[in-house]
């Protein structure tokens, strides 16, 4: 399975992946998923956004109303790594294969899921598919989202022809009907497991995080004839804001990143009229997140007064603190032949966090990442660790069925 996915959407230049929602590469992966479910005899369900679930064991389940869901996502960030998302989908299918080899007859129906637009790389709202499924975001809001080329979400959906995809269905939530537990396997996006010497870990929770759009406006002018003291240059305001975010995060042990910027008119010999930068901010608790963003905004406004520019801040998406079910985490992490798996927090957002916030008991498994690098072509995992992850997921699903 991994060999089949490896070339899809991969850049020949960087080795990274471009698997944005409702474009060719991501659509090819979802078609692959449909074929993989069909080959295993899994009953496939889809909703209007392209979220998919393949169900196993419904005919023999003695607890049919206590559905157990696993899986992850297939989309990527721009120039992303191979493992973030797809590892969880492939491992879930492999775990079903492993349980079948063991002769397991699940007492609960087990679903393998694919959530769309988890990264928010095209329409700017992370975990869009799971947010719509849980009601955290409405279709009325989502239908207004546009990508960088100005394409509206409904138009992007209408251009895709895949099984289970009906743009008119909007925010149908039937895919989560009866789901009482969700398990997501994911490559670790840091070095904690490397430092601890474990191949597998269990998540305790997810830091609060958000995406904030900083719009800085000034006056376009000539780069050569305009004296420095006569300029209203929003690029200067942006530059000092980015430095302020870095300083504030370092002082508080938080995370702050300006990773995307747009400049108008974007000319080499012109003072820009507008600079828009997107701040990704993450903190240990929600109060700290609010204070971090407020502090960065204050510094931006102060600098704007010096530059003769204006600043406007818009919160595009904010996710609160997620604490995964502690009893479920302990149950999954303990009592293994190789010893207990470590329980650790994560600073990265996941569909698991959205489902947990919606009240579905949720647990996450992490597979060791030797490089510790993620959202980059350097993201990695070894084959032996990935196979341990398959067994860990199969063991977890089997135990939860019992």
Taken together, the total number of domains comes to 2
What's the mean pLDDT score? 92
What percent of residues are in strands? 15-25%
According to CATH, the fold-level topology of the largest domain is Aminopeptidase
**What is the number of helices?**
12
What this model shows, in words?
By secondary structure, this protein is of the alpha/beta class. Helices cover 33% and strands 23% of the residues. It is built from 12 helices and 15 strands. Strands 1, 2, 3, 4, 5, 6, 13, 14 and 15 form a 9-stranded mixed β-sheet that branches. The protein has a 4-stranded antiparallel β-sheet with strand order 9-11-7-12, with helices on one face. Helix 3 (86-101) crosses helix 12 (383-401) and helix 8 (234-252) packs antiparallel against helix 9 (286-307). Residues 164-172 have low confidence and may be disordered. 46% of the residues are buried. The chain is elongated. Helix 3 (86-101) links the parallel strand 3 and strand 4 (110-115). The protein has helices spanning 2-5, 24-39, 86-101, 128-134, 139-142, 153-158, 192-196, 234-252, 286-307, 326-333, 351-357, 383-401, and strands spanning 43-46, 52-56, 67-73, 110-115, 179-187, 200-206, 209-217, 221-222, 255-264, 270-271, 274-282, 310-319, 322-323, 343-346, 362-367. The chain folds into 2 domains: 2-207 and 321-401, Zn peptidases (Aminopeptidase, 3-Layer(aba) Sandwich), CATH 3.40.630.10; 209-319, Alpha-Beta Plaits, CATH 3.30.70.
